[in-house]
Specification:
This protein is an alpha+beta fold. It has two domains: 117 residues, PAS domain (Beta-Lactamase); 210 residues, Hypothetical protein af1432 (Orthogonal Bundle). It is built from 16 helices and five strands. The chain has a five-stranded antiparallel β-sheet. Strand 4 and strand 5 form a beta hairpin. Helix 6 crosses helix 7, helix 11 runs antiparallel to helix 12 and helix 12 packs across helix 13. The longest helix is centred in the middle third of the chain and has 29 residues.
Length: 351
């Protein structure tokens, strides 16, 4: 019977939690894939504070607490709220509190198509908003559209480098999504998550300043050629620095430092450990992952297992070992980004 219920929960995209105390909940059955991104791990924690993960639940928990204390078996729902997943897409969620078998239970569900019906109902509620609230909502929508346009312009500009080397437009877009997923798991503010999603794809922008005879060479570079190739880090940083735009300032740091190594053997400055900017350390990990698992004109794609094993051997030397552990916990999220983002036509961000 337990396996039957687990199958039903999986089919309906429902996560089942038992309430341990006022703040702690324990996940029951298998963790749904959509929840991994928000918890920042593919391994179910013993307990978690869901109001930290989903701040929207804070107000609902007061009503849920009264519902549980009254031991009411009838469900109490929170209403729909919207989160943004690892692909930048809207995810409609709903919480339900109920009392069953002497236990306080909280259900979290990804509503999928049901969300459209709820949107229609909410539209009637929105019609009753005060004029000032309507104006604020309109400003927010326009701001998001402007951010989307800025990101799309940045991606298309970076994609121009694909005409000069083996990288693809989809590759640079994936780099931004991977990096944003890691920043989310690390608890970064929303504005900084947006910044790294735009900044990480610019890591190799400096290659535009490298001669074709070196950039496009199929064989091994000579020592002199490699010293010229390494200059793309400094070229990219100079192109992006001093803009007073946070995303471009971060991009300049990433461009300069994404070839630095945890053990200090990288370039151009041989920075060691946490001397390397965090955004650059994140970008290094996700760039290596995406390069290994995709085919290029000079190599075949590795299977993910082989790629992860190789990267594991690099942790502590080339890669920040703690960040690599975060990456591994998010591997299902990274895999979804890798498998769903293929073509440049797919690169529009959804808000």
């Amino acid at each position: 019977m337990d396996s039957l219920f687990a199958s039903i929960y999986h089919t309906l995209n429902i996560a089942v939690f038992l309430r341990r105390d006022e703040q702690c909940f324990a996940l029951q059955a298998q963790m749904p894939e959509w929840l991994m991104f928000f918890l920042g791990t593919s391994i179910a924690p013993q307990t978690c504070d869901l109001t930290d993960v989903f701040p929207y639940l804070t107000c609902f928990m007061d009503d849920a607490e009264q519902h549980w204390q009254a031991k009411r078996s009838a469900p109490l729902t929170s209403g729909v709220w919207v989160e943004t997943n690892e692909l930048g897409q809207e995810l409609a969620l709903e919480a339900t509190a109920l009392w069953a078998d002497g236990q306080a239970i909280l259900l979290l569900q990804d509503l999928g198509e049901k969300y459209r019906q709820e949107v229609s109902r909410l539209q009637q509620v929105r019609d009753g908003l005060l004029t000032q609230e309507k104006l604020e909502n309109e400003v927010q929508k326009r701001t998001l559209k402007l951010k989307q346009r800025e990101e799309e312009i940045a991606i298309k500009l970076v994609s121009l480098t694909s005409y000069r080397d083996e990288e693809t437009g989809a590759h640079v877009r994936r780099i931004g999504l991977y990096a944003a997923a890691m920043a989310k798991a690390l608890g970064w503010p929303v504005c900084q998550i947006d910044d790294i999603r735009m900044a990480a794809p610019m890591h190799d922008l400096g290659k535009i300043g490298i001669p074709d005879k070196i950039l496009l060479k199929k064989g091994k570079l000579t020592e002199v050629e490699f010293s010229i190739m390494k200059r793309h880090t400094e070229i990219g940083a100079k192109m992006l620095q001093d803009s007073n735009i946070p995303a471009l300032d971060m991009a300049a740091e990433i461009a300069l430092c994404h070839h630095e190594k945890w053990d200090g053997s990288g370039y151009p400055r041989e920075l060691h450990g946490e001397e390397i900017p965090l955004a650059a350390r994140i970008t290094t990990i996700v760039d290596i992952y995406d390069a290994l698992v995709h085919e290029r004109v000079y190599k075949k794609a590795m299977c993910e297992k082989e790629a992860v094993e190789l990267m594991s051997s690099m942790a502590g030397a080339h890669l920040d070992p703690q960040l690599f552990r975060v990456f591994m916990e998010l591997l299902p999220v990274m895999r979804r980004i890798r498998t769903e983002v293929h073509e440049i036509d797919d690169l529009i961000v959804s808000y």
